[in-house]
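For consistency, the fold was encoded as tokens, as this record shows:
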Amino acid sequence: MPWKKVSFSYQRKGKRKGMATLKKEMPIEKTSIMATEAARLHIEKIRTQKFSIGAKSPNPLTEDLHHAVTSLSAELYAKDVHFLMELIQNAEDNEYKQGVEPTLEFVFTTKDITGSGAPATLLVFNNEVGFSEKNMESICSVGRSTKKGKRHLGFIGEKGIGFKSVFLVTIQPHIFSNGYHVRFSEDPDQDCGIGYIVPEWVGGKPYLSTICDIYGSDKVLPTTIILLPLKPEKVEAVKAQLSELHPELLLFLSKIKRLSVCGNTCNSKEDVNVSDIFISTETDHVALSDKSADSRVLHLSVKEDGAEETCRYYIWRETFPVKPANEFSARNDVKKCVISIAFPFGERLKRGTSAVGIFAFLPTAMITNFPFVIQADFVLASSRETILLDNKWNLGILECIPSAFFHAFISCVKKDATTICSVAQAFEFLPARSSTILELNNIRKLIKNMLQGEAFIPCEMFDNRKHFCTPQRAIRILPKFREILFQMKEQGVPLGGMFSLKENVIHSSIDLIEFTGILDYLGVPSVDNSYQWYGKCIEFCNLVLSASEDAYMELLCFLADNEKISSLKDFKKMLLFKCVNRKGHVRLCSIATRGMFRIYYSQEPKLHAWLTECNIEFECPDDMCFLPSPTLEALISHKRSSLIMCWLKYNTGLSPFSAVSYCAQISDHLMKTDEPRFVIKLAHFLYHAHCKKFIMESMLYGLCTRMPVIDGSNCIRRQKNVTLVSAPGSKWKKLFGPSNPFSENNYVDIGKVYAEGGQFAGECTPKGVILSFLSTYTRAVDIPELHPPNVVLKVASSKLTSEQGFLLLDWIRFLRTKGSYIPAKFIESIRDGRWMKTYLGFNSPNRCILPDEAGKTIFGMMRTVVERFSILDQDFYMNRITLYADELKFLGVRFGSDGVQKLLVDRFKSLAASGMSKECAFSLLMFIGILKGKNMLDEAWLGVMREGKWLKTFNGYNAPRGSVFLQSEIEANAILTITSLPLVDTGFYGSNLSSFSSELTLLGVVLDMKVYELVEESLNFPADLSSLTWDSGFLILKCIRYLGSATSSLVEKTRNQRWLKTSCGFKRPLESVLVNPEFMRLLDAFEVPIIDEAFYGNTIRSFAAELKAIGVAVDLNSALKLIVTQFKSFLSSSSLTPVKVISLLECIREINENVSSQLQELHQCLLGEKWLRTRNGYRTPSESILFSSKWGTISLFVDLPLIDDSFYGIVIYGFEDELKMLGVITGFEGGAPFVARGLTRPIEPRFVTDLGTIALLECIKYLMSKSNDQPLLDNFFSNLMRSKWLKTRKGYKKPEECILFDPTWEVILEETDAPMIEHTFYKSEIFMYKNQLRAIGVKVDPGDVCSLLSRYLMSLTETSSITRVYNFLHMFNWKPELPDKDYQVWVINHNGNSGGEWVNSQLCILHDKDNVFNSHLYALDKCYQKELLPFFSSAFAVAEFPSIDDYMWLWDSLVMRVNSQVTAKECCSFWDYILKNWSPHTEDFLKKRLTKVPATTSTSERIHLVSKELVFIPDDLQLKHFFSSIDGIPLFVWLPKCKSFSTVHPMRLFEIYESLGVRKISGSVECHASISHSLDQYKMDPRNGLIGRGLVRIVLGFIAGPRVSMPVEERHKVAKLLLDLSVFESREPILVSYQLLLTADKTLEVEAGKLVFWDKNSCRLLIDKSGYEDRKSNIKFVSCFAREIAEGLLACEKADAIENLSKIIQIGFMFEFKEESMVTLLTSENLELFAEDEKFLDAACLLSKQSPVIRSLPVMPPIDDNSQLLTQPNLKESRWRKVPNYPDPPKFSSSSLYPKRRSQQLELLSPPTPESSQKKPRQ
């Protein structure tokens, strides 16, 4: 932003200095000639004596001064010094005459008043006493400040830089003071070679008259003037620093009273009136008795552009002693530390800068986030921007800041609150916000800790007096409650109880939202954390009873609105709610008593009154209460009664009540009490409520059913399932007796107490009325209509009379007739009860029978089974019993002979459910035989008998089906041993059981041989195998033989079970062998289990077939398989001992004599298993080697699997033939693969002998000729090639590092020139293995030797050896394998010695005829013979002459010039070579290397070398014209003129610039439009619209076409964007700001007019009315409109797509976008709309003839949530303002449509920053 003229001033009240005093000062131009001459002589003296200028002999101290100045320069530019702060600091430390107002003024001008060519000059004016000789000598020195050691006197300078900081912005500063007219230079003085401190007298420019004109001809020049001609690159930085001078910097300066900044440009119209910032008043306010602190109030005002702003500062200053631990060398003279705290009242004066929080006399850049300012004598960093937080001096100051703030704050709050500020204003200075700096955050915490113990928070006790409390006792309350308290106070309610509370209510002035953060910082509980206080306040102040009913309602409304308060546990115990108790008095209850007290009300007055009386009659059951009438009236009349009622309902259960609900409540209460009188009263209540019409008849049934009653035993019955009629005169009494048998089942009989009369609520009731009332409305019943419960009928267990019996049968008949469900327990108790009379006594119906004659006979035969059954006594029932035949059958009584038979069947069924006695079992078998003989067997019944577990077996009682019966005792014992079959217990039943075999078969018992079939399924061997006997084994074999082919399952079960007795114990059949003498020898050797024939006898061999079937080895083949398996088990268990191996070899030797084909499997097993122990572990025979003397030479370094003779002993060598037969390696040649595999680590040279080497070569020879395992060979070669095992002249080397020397090379090479194999060590045998050596990498052929020599060459340092190697390489035409590699070339010293050096071949050339590149390149023709030079060119790519790189080096040397300027001739020379050698390679090379290109300005012929990122190709003449008006900036590339550069056309160079990355001006400019919101806006006629259906059709067709191929969803988004575009018309011109982006932070800007502009931020299309009116003939308007639409819609697409769409839109514009014409236009362009696009176009509600609505731009646009551009109305110029989510808006000017140059100047000659190279301009 442009900086403004600003003036800072400071003066005390009543001591302002007038202009009369200023006029008394002597002007500089009127100082005495003698003073000027004395000053000049003094300068000459300094130059002569100190710097030895003009002296014959140099000053010995000059060199020291030079080093000191060099150090000063390094320090100056290493520190980020703010030079203005240094100058202000120096002015503060200067001396001033008494009565003079110390003033410092900065004047910026664009005039070059010093004549140095500077673009601008900064003048500094100070009215100090002026420079003395001591001051001048100090400024001409380094480290000789006149202020050292004077810190205690108020001097604030300390960095040792001071005035010399101006060299950051200027090259030649000038000083005019007390006759001194001198200047200093950054460049070393030409006479003494020292810069910075050498003074030079100024005799000419600048003239004092020029300075007077700038300062003001009507003003007197101050004593001291400093002129700073600014460096071009520092102009903007100085302007920025001037504009950023903080207005508060005057607060803590003790001398400077006024500081001003103003500008003076060449154009007087641009001058701005001087503005002032000054402290208008200063008042001493407080001085403590110990004089360690004082305070004052300052008013700082700012006048700028005629407006005045003022800020008042309360400054507290306090002195603290310096602790020894905090003493600092730079502050040794300071014993007391002074800290100032400033409180700004009002908005601080910042002038666009940040709010500085820390001052060290002058402002730093530290942001504290604190609302106050801290001033102290801090030790600063060199940049003055921050304090050193780890400095012990600063740490001491930071420790004192909390105390200083505490005293200042308390002074404001308590002592000075009335005179300085309000308490609320003082609280705004508390550091509520945390700081990002840890040390300052600690200060914030310490301040909080100190405030915790101080009573400073104002409280409100509602007694019209001031009160303060500590933060711990303060509390915040809700505003509504505060209003209630004030209301009660006005009503006279005493609030003195608040003094009894621990917490105090903070004053309303600070209990505001804006103080939330401050109160949180102090720890004052928030509103959410102070809910407990409200209950205490209500309780201690007795607000419920003291308040009026209306106030009481407000209190309840407040609690209803704040549920968090009323939900607190302690609050729930408070007595808040009013109600009427049982005596009619008002009482209080709480939320906690909700379960004990319930409050009700009724809307009907009569009902409410009667219910109240009833409630008193019932004595308020369950503490049911009613609201007092006044409270109810206040509640109903309250405006928020519904809210209060809802809240009371939730917290107290307040509910409206009717007579029905009240009755239900009473009934519920009586369910929990034992007061019969209340139960009787409830009946009376219902009766009278019904009479009074309070309860309808339809509700009575439910209420009476629900209410408790008193039964016949005078007990209260609360639960009633069924109500019985009263006992007197009832049938149930005749059957059951006087007591109710179903009482426990809630069958309640109405008590006779209800038959009596009574009185309730003052009304009488006659006798019998209540009993009749209850009988009717409780629906009382009697038998037989009574439905019984599901319980046992106890009377059925007693002997019933015939009358009772018939009552019971009638009851059952009624229930069955009605189809009612008869409960199970009820009917079963009747069936099982002994109430029926028989001839044998009383019995249950299900055990009674009425048989005919045949049935009596059967019944007599089975008397023992049916002994509990008897026949009914018909005489007892007077022969009427047969009338109830259906009921008797229903009860289980049996009739006739069929009934007898069914009785027996059922009886046997019941007996079969469990174990049956022996007698019953035989009876059953006999009964089955009888029924079988009569063909009367029932299969269903017989099936039940088969499944019943009644048959006794050895496994317990079991069902007959599946049980086994065997007569053989031996087989029976075997069955019991190996199976779980249920074998019938013959010992229990005896031998008679066998006579019932047919009956047993009918029942499913398995007999005889069929038992074998069951053994397969139930086979189960015992855990203790010792219990197995021989008969068990034979039983299994018999089963297998009996079952034959159907025994597969049994075979599988027995194969893997251990049950066969063998020589090794019980084994599985698969592990056992039936011995055969033919292979007895092998079996003994391998310990194979053999079946124990002594256990089984010879009979076992008769079952050979069965044994073979289950897996027993009975022949040689199967036995061998077991032997192999046993051998493998020895291997897996590591139990193959040497003895067993030797025994195995002996067995092989014996068997080998009688070789049998059947032993091949054993042989294959021995070959494939790892059973031979070697030095490398267990191996297969083919992987093992039997040691011999030939292996000794290489066994030292090769890991070989030699058989471990220490394990087997030397006896192993006696089986060489057997081992060889098994595949063991016994010869050397066959072991070559083992050598290859055994070499796993590098060979150590100490283990290698000449014979060992020859042996290895023999192995290589064998493998190369015989082996087909190429990976093995490759791995072997790899191990050999990485070992240093070949002896050469240079020591042991790897094969690839060795050369086999050919004697024919002796004429060229010597053996010592390279690592040649030492043939004298290996004798002549080594030459026999050339092929093998070549295979492992040894260099044998000349080509390979050349390759190795080229790599070995760099290790040589003797010219003779190197030359021989070069000649060898040249002889065999060696070429490098990697041509692009940078090789080193040996360059011989020019003095003729053999010495030299290795240099990069790229730095060498063959010839340098003119010796131009002596300092850069090496010419080889001076080092080697002519014949060898072609070798360097072909082998090392040494160039014959200099290349483009060399010329590039020359160009770089031009770039390194100080002024970065070149001549046209130099440019022509360089570009002439480039153009002659132009190629793609040259182009790529220059893109990488060429960073600066020549550029010129519009007004100068000078050619500057400027970064190619900062210059542009002028391809757009209009834009070039816009930006050419900026003087002094080389923006456009240099193009040659025809005369000076005639070899190439300028356009050719134009193309080269573009290919090298120089940007075109057309693609590097961004534009922003602005239209003043104060201008008139008009709404366009909708019929003249521009955006319609035709334009949308063009856009959709184009973006769907092949040029863009946009997906359908994105196409519709683009079309929607166009349809949502609002078109606005303006009569004022649309200004477009063109910004030329140089780097990320450097931009040039000009302004111009535009006819159409699309504002992306607001989705508006701005149209200039002047162009719109003649749009059909205005080609400029048409092209601008088409271009804006195309660029706005296709911003992310390629430039050619935008151009093509723009052209189509221009054509469509000429046809007014008529849809028929647009279809034809798209067809001509080979474009069309897809179906989905047509559908979208139709759905967009744009008719073919409809035009868009063109909206007028509002005067003041709304500010939406996206933070759009903010503008101020009625202002023609808007300032830059930072808005989120959008780039900074441009500064617009509506003065004209012509380009306008910006005042911003840019640094163009400096190299670009990395950020600038990454940012791409908008196309």
